[in-house]
Amino acid sequence: MFRISSKKHLFSFTFHLFYSTAPATCRANVLVDFMVNSLGFSTQEAISTSDKVTRSRIRNHEPHLLLDLFDQMGINKLQIKTLISSSPKLLICRVDKNLLPKIKVLQQLGLSGSDLVTFISKSDLLTTGLHTIIEPNLVYLKELLGSHDSVTRIIMKEPRLFSCNLHKVMPPNITLLQNLGFSRMDIDKAFHRHPRFLLNNPVKLERAVYQLEKIFHMPRESRMFIHGVEVLVSLDESTLERKLDIYRSFGWSDSDICKMVRKLPYCLTTSEAKIRITLKFFMNELGYESSYLASYAPLLKYSFEKRVMPRNEILKFLKENQLVKGKLCLYTVVKCTELQFLEKYVLPFRATMPELYDLYMKTRS
Question: Does residue 31 lie in a domain region?
């Protein structure tokens, strides 16, 4: 149970009384002093943070109760500072009536310590009603997902789910996708991959289905179709068109683009800048044709700095020193797991050519 010492309670009461009745400038100064002396904020950080809340109409200022609560939860001062930096309104919330009941619900779900810090910092916990939103959401998610652990995993992956009326927003989208021929298993998997996927307006889902079928010529029975829907609902039309124009500027035909999307629609989630860098490397520096890249679309989605570039350097070294027999392509090398890559292309040559291992470590750093 949440308790505070009588000394701290007296200090908190005095702080609350002063903060509620003093002029705005004085209240701001007291809040700044609290953040500097109790939480390790620099003066400038504290001023910047307090500016975000001192104009609030809320008059219940209980930061010392907040400090006690987080301390009893095992959250350290650095974590508290991180929380307040991301959610300054914590400083002026009603700890006992607003925050504490919601935290108890989260603890019942198994969240504690750093998980609680992450959740609170990424959610709209303070402004979300406990009885009107949070509790109905948990009931709905439990019915949808079937287990307590699944609910915990999904809200940790997407804390903002808490602030939506899930039982009103999600069912129309689930029904729409089922009517379009998607199985409940496919829909559940998509929800686990991207929890906000089912929070979109149904019109956006219908638009994504239309685009996949009519623009990218992807058959609905393709195992990539539901992935394509996930991708396209996240892109507005102008963003999508800008990305497609980048591919066209490198000589890609619409047929090439469609093939790439059918192979791996997640290529469209790459940033515009990264698309340009990747295409410049593969096409201008390595000489790959667009038709080849479209057929081996995962090449465009692997980490460029941590995977593609280092492994390309190793491939060049192996070929230049005639350490491999037969034709070895970059895609074969890149698609290996890290362990497979090391065991097959690096470690066998470490004794005779230690510079190969050193080169790999250097290019990955």
Answer: yes
Contacts of the segment 300-306: beta carbons below 8 A, 24+ positions apart: 300/260, 300/264, 300/267, 300/270, 300/275, 301/264, 301/266, 301/267, 301/270, 302/334, 302/335, 304/274, 304/277, 304/278, 306/364
Compute the average pLDDT of residues 28-32.
77
Whether 9 is in a domain gets the answer: yes
Tell me the mean pLDDT in the region 119-134.
Answer: 90
d(CA 170, CA 174): 6
Range of the domain at 83: 1-98
Same domain as 12, residue 67: yes
For residues 309 and 267, state if they share a domain.
no
Report pLDDT digits (tens) over 253-305: 999 999 999 999 999 999 999 999 999 999 999 999 999 999 999 999 999 98
Could you tell me if 328 and 319 are in contact, meaning their C-beta atoms sit under 8 angstroms apart? yes
